[in-house]
Amino acid sequence: MVEKSQESIASYIESPEKLKNLYRRVLIVVSLSQIFGGAGLAAGITVGALLAQQMLGTDAYAGVPSALFTLGSAGAAFIVGKLSQRYGRRIGLSTGFIVGGLGAIGVVLATLMNSIVLLFASLLIYGAGTATNLQARYAGTDLANNKQRATAISTTMLMTTFGAVLGPNLVEWMGKVALSIGIPALAGPFLLSALAFIMAGLVLFTMLRPDPLEIAKAIEAHKQKMNKENQVPSMPISSNKRGLAVGATVMVLTQIVMVAIMTMTPVHMKHHGHGLAEVGIVIGFHVGAMYLPSLVTGILVDKIGRTAMSIASGITLLLAGVVAAFAPSDSMVLLIVALSLLGLGWNFGLISGTAQIVDATEPSTRAKTQGKMDVFVALAGASGGALSGMVVANSSYAALSLTGGLLSLVLIPVVIWSRRAA
């Protein structure tokens, strides 16, 4: 069996056409899982804050659910990265999605039992689905060359759009379904998340064969062997550290700003008379803007560069913060514009930052390093989610939005510094 597996891997090294076909197949499988994964994100984003507000009876801790499932995603990102490095993308990603689905089931049980402790514990576990959905973008890059990486990332993220946009717009309907079976309405979307995350895990477990990371490791080992035989000097590892630092900074800052403003938008809307259906529409546009522009963004990152698109991210997030801060509270149109810009700025930052991380890693350590980078991203989101409720409770939604927009400008000197240093 081992010999047969080694022969199979060798055939991809010897046949560029076969490798190219596998690359395309991997993109299709990962994209399919992302459709389900995107739908699984809907519950936490759309009703997490409202659920906490209802069960705790205060706005001050409305950001806690976002913080918890983002904190849970930090731990999951590290574990999924380690699992992927040791056993391949198929095992790491499928495990993460299925665990996230079990967390969503726990949230539903917590609402039935009116248990805050179970709710918070389940939200931590639910974060595994969020982390895995984000880490799946790396799987598409394992077999891509450096001119295809951002495009590969964006292709899988684009497919997330279908589930991510549909999910928030099913919030009201899932609430009715939940009520019809004796479950609180706000827990309804978590039923959808449970099914979606588990389906995403099953798709990857059954279809992601052969494993792209294992093939990439074999190709790297083959290249190193050939370089050694031909006495070609290898690039020093230290040359990649700057790329890791800049890529992580770009992703961390965009995540803080996006999560903070996004988390408190449903609460802000509810305070000003907007219903759950209207919240779903605004969040649907936001999530659509997070993922739908991905294919174009990936091409731009590959064509005009990581630095330019990172700067574009900072400027777009600033515009989002300004529009959200000064938009009349009863204006659905301006809220949609603000949250769409917020999603677009996040999209620019995540894809350009991810591309820099992939550029700076090798297959032999790639998944483990990527998992560590996503831990920082998740912790940044947890901080943004936790602090957002406190800022709004003690100040205003406008102050939160404006502060987030200004914070995003830090991206510009960071990427300019990295370019000059390079």
UniProtKB/TrEMBL annotation:
Subcellular localization: Cell membrane
UniProt KW Ligase keyword: no
Mode of membrane association: Multi-pass membrane protein
Major facilitator superfamily (MFS) profile domain segment(s): 26-422
Keyword field contains Transmembrane helix: yes
A Pfam family of this chain: MFS_1
Entry's transmembrane regions: 26-48, 60-79, 91-110, 116-138, 150-171, 177-205, 244-267, 279-301, 308-327, 333-355, 375-393, 399-417
Alphabetical list of PROSITE patterns matching this protein: MFS
Predominant location category: membrane
Entry keyword set: Membrane, Transmembrane, Transmembrane helix, Transport
PANTHER family named in the record: MAJOR FACILITATOR SUPERFAMILY PROTEIN, MFS PERMEASE
Protein name: MFS transporter
Species, as recorded: Lysinibacillus boronitolerans JCM 21713 = 10a = NBRC 103108
